[in-house]
Amino acid sequence: MSMDQAALMAALQSVIDPNTGKDFVSTKLLKNLRAQGASVSFDVTLGYPARSQIAPIRQMLEDAALSVPGVQQATANVDFKIIAHSVQRGVPLLPGVKNMIAVASGKGGVGKSTTAANLALALAAEGARVGMLDADIYGPSQPTMMGVHGSPEHDGQAMQPLIGHGVQVNSIGLMVKQGQAMIWRGPMVTQALDQLMRQTAWHDVDYLIVDMPPGTGDVQLSISQRAPVTGAVIVTTPQDIALMDARRGIAMFEKVGVPILGVVENMAVYRCTQCGHEEHIFGAGGGQRMAEEYKVDYLGGLPLSLSIREQADSGCPTVAAAPDSAEAATYRAIARRIAVKVAEQAKDYSSRFPTITVSNT
Ligand SMILES: Nc1ncnc2c1ncn2[C@@H]1O[C@H](COP(=O)(O)OP(=O)(O)OP(=O)(O)O)[C@@H](O)[C@H]1O
User: Fold this and answer.
1) CATH architecture of 5-80
2) Nearest 10 degrees: CA dihedral of 189, 191, 192, 194?
3) Which tens digit of pLDDT belongs to each residue from 41-63?
4) Ligand 1 mean position to 16 CA, how many Å?
5) What is this structure's pTM?
6) Which residues have any ligand 1 atom within 6 Å of their CB?
């Protein structure tokens, strides 16, 4: 029995990627469909890091093809490729970095650095090449959280990032003495961060996570204007005051044309380690309500958890220390949502155009 090509396409189109909610045919991700006798094969390239997703997606696609009368053999070649997506107009990309994701918060102490570290590890666990730029001048904690020691080597041109849990790390905390940066004035901070960003030899990074200084002052505004940011993630806790500050964070990025990838609610609920009872100490649903009000995505919530704190503060964040825990699964789900949202953004075309230098001579 010969196969009906239209039926094959319809069957393949009925398969929905659970991560994007879209099919692979109308999004043109399915390519090179070959049919020979009773065999079909095709390629699917996902736009987000998907090591754990390849096998189930391959299975769904092959099952769909095999359900078509006349198809006896189906081979789906599924892989992923992360490309550079657009940033603010007129801001050039950093060499060696495809996408920069700013992790920000309206106020300090909400768990921004912990979230940034775990998201970096979650993206890396799915096969992405990840960098971590710790720009938190007021409390650079990434060297501790990512477990890196020493200073980056400088070859006269650029600094070599340190490697922690497979992630390329550089931090303002590795460049200055403890406490020194806090007394710098705004322009000095901006200059130091600019240098840190541009003079680090990032090696073919798919996602550079930037742990931003907390707040929405001049330094933060300047980074969000000058750095090529693909999108921003806002971390908040559920208290009204933190939510109010988070709103300011959203407004700051929107003002400079950086898309908000979504909101992460940290320390959303307390779960008793003895009996499992859950208590919304700071009120329930605040992050979600704020996300709805501001029409941004609610990416997920993390509980107030002793293990999250202990693991991050001891240099092995939860995603690496306890990959089978519920908290690690939440971080991975949030990271996947972020990567999918980045993949949906327009491609960066700036590298296609030559830079025009006007010379007066
Ligand atoms: N979900 C959580 N449960 C328990 N403790 C947490 C959680 N998230 C973060 N912490 C802890 O709270 C403290 C502050 O977290 P973190 O440094 O990530 O916050 P931050 O917002 O980056 O702060 P800063 O304003 O200093 O940049 C750390 O000790 C961290 O381990």
Assistant:
1) 2-Layer Sandwich (3.30)
2) 120
3) 999 999 999 999 999 999 999 99
4) 37
5) 0.93
6) 105, 108-114, 136, 139, 141, 214, 266-267, 302, 304-305, 308-309, 312-313
